[in-house]
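Narrative of accomplishments. A recurring question from our advisory board has been how the design workflow behaves on a single, concrete structure rather than in aggregate. To address it, we present the structure tokens for one chain from the evaluation set, followed by the sequence designed for it. No filtering or post-editing was applied between the two.
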């Protein structure tokens, strides 16, 4: 019993000493590497796929009786690992977890209750070669958890294919991978982890097809041999929405490098699902929506944000057959501005004029006009007939259409400007519809009267000078006649 207790105490002491030594050693090891290396260690030890790689550094620690044993093990290109003096393990092709179990089993078999621990301290890094249809042949750094797609992402040319990438391993084994299947289908077997000495060959694409329009996944694709229009639309494009027009799919085909515009023709996919695609074909799937009938809205309308306009605007609106004017007007209610005369709007349909009260449609929820929209109708919105009167010393006095946010200078300009010989210093009098006199900085409102004052002294002098001259001439003539006739004798 005493011997058993002594063994337990010694074992506990050894394990405790080992744990302290391991903790200290780990802290010292981490100081030698940056944070990314520490992160790689954690990632590698937590990933069941991490494969033992030449250049890895492992730590083996256990208690041999009362002696704490610690080994640093470096994996070389032979992948033969010596476990103390207990045996040699072949680590080639093994994952870290498989190697860990084998090593710890060997130690435990020779030293029961030894508290054996086997851990990865530094994952290996290595180089792989990338060549073929790439920007340039390069060597890139990798480690055992680097996938093929990671090293290729900045290497492709616009003609590179990701459908048949060849990896030649250091032992001469050749295998092909399809990265499109990895990204589209999530098949990670097609995006393998890289190994030391791998040579990656990227091929040029046989066919590069551009898919646009009404498909679920438009884009540029590289179909493999035997895949044509059906696979392009249903697999690569992920299918067509219900409003895709399958009867008039546009295909643009380029015959040569000098062919800038390409030859355009149309395909009825409902009748030909085996149409063969050529390199650089561009496929555009139109929408039935583009075939919808249209009507026009014009006049005093703005944008959807309600911007006021100074001039008449015309907009083209698509609609579904059977749509009522109530729906159109409420949908585009933001088009109507402060100058839109919505009570006097009307529809032009061929030679007919159909009045429509937009104000009732907009503001009376119970109102139903029962008026259907027909193709090529024009809904015309007149401008409200507001005016501003300009009088006095201007070139063309009169009444001018009111435009919101315009100053007195705008309306004086419409009237031809001041008559400079009659008006000094732009003197004006502004009176609103209620008879209130406004200043030049006040907002001009509808039915305001702007009077350009006649305040030039020279104007009045020129106005009355002929009369005074005439009167004086008459007086002078009269006196001369009287003097001749002797009246003053």
């Amino acid at each position: 019993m005493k011997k058993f207790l002594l063994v337990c105490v010694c074992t506990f002491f050894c394990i405790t000493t080992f744990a302290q030594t391991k903790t200290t050693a780990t802290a010292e090891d981490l100081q030698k590497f940056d944070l990314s290396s520490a992160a790689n260690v954690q990632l590698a030890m937590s990933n069941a796929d991490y494969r033992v790689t030449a250049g890895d550094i492992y730590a083996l620690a256990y208690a041999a009786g009362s002696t704490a044993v610690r080994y640093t093990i470096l994996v070389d290109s032979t992948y033969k690992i010596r476990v103390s003096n207990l045996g040699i393990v072949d680590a080639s092709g093994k994952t870290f977890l498989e190697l860990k179990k084998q090593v710890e089993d060997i130690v435990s078999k020779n030293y029961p209750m030894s508290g054996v621990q086997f851990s990865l301290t530094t994952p290996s890094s290595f180089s792989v070669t990338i060549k073929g249809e790439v920007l340039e042949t390069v060597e890139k750094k990798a480690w055992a958890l680097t996938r093929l797609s990671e090293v290729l992402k900045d290497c492709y040319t616009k003609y590179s294919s990701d459908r048949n990438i060849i990896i030649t391993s250091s032992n001469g084994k050749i295998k092909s991978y399809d990265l499109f299947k990895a990204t589209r289908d999530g098949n990670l077997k097609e995006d393998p982890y890289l190994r030391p000495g791998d040579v990656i060959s990227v091929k040029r694409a046989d066919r590069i097809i551009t898919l646009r329009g009404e498909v679920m996944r438009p884009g540029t694709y590289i179909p493999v041999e035997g895949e044509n229009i059906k696979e392009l639309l249903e697999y690569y494009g992920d299918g067509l929405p219900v409003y895709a027009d399958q009867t008039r799919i546009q295909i643009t085909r380029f015959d040569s490098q000098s062919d800038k515009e390409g030859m355009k023709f149309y395909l009825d996919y409902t009748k030909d699902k085996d149409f063969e695609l050529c390199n650089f074909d561009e496929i555009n799937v139109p929408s039935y929506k583009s075939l919808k009938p249209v009507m026009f809205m014009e006049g005093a309308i703005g944008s959807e944000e309600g911007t006021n306009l100074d001039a008449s605007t015309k907009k083209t609106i698509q609609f579904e057959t059977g749509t009522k004017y109530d729906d159109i007007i409420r949908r585009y209610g933001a088009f109507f501005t402060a100058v839109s005369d919505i009570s006097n709007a009307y529809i032009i349909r061929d030679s007919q004029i159909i009045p429509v009260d937009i104000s009732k449609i907009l503001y009376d929820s119970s109102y139903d006009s029962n008026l259907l929209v027909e193709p090529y109708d024009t809904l015309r919105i007149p401008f409200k007939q507001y005016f501003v009167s300009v009088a006095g010393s201007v070139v063309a006095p009169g009444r001018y259409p009111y435009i919101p946010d315009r100053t007195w200078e705008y309306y004086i300009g419409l009237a031809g400007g001041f008559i400079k010989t009659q008006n000094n210093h732009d003197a004006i009098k502004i009176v609103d519809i209620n008879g209130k006199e406004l200043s030049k900085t006040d907002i001009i409102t509808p039915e305001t009267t702007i009077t350009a004052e006649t305040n030039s002294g020279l104007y009045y002098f020129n106005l009355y000078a002929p009369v005074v001259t005439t009167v004086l001439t008459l007086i002078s003539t009269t006196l001369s006649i009287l003097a001749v006739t002797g009246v003053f004798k």
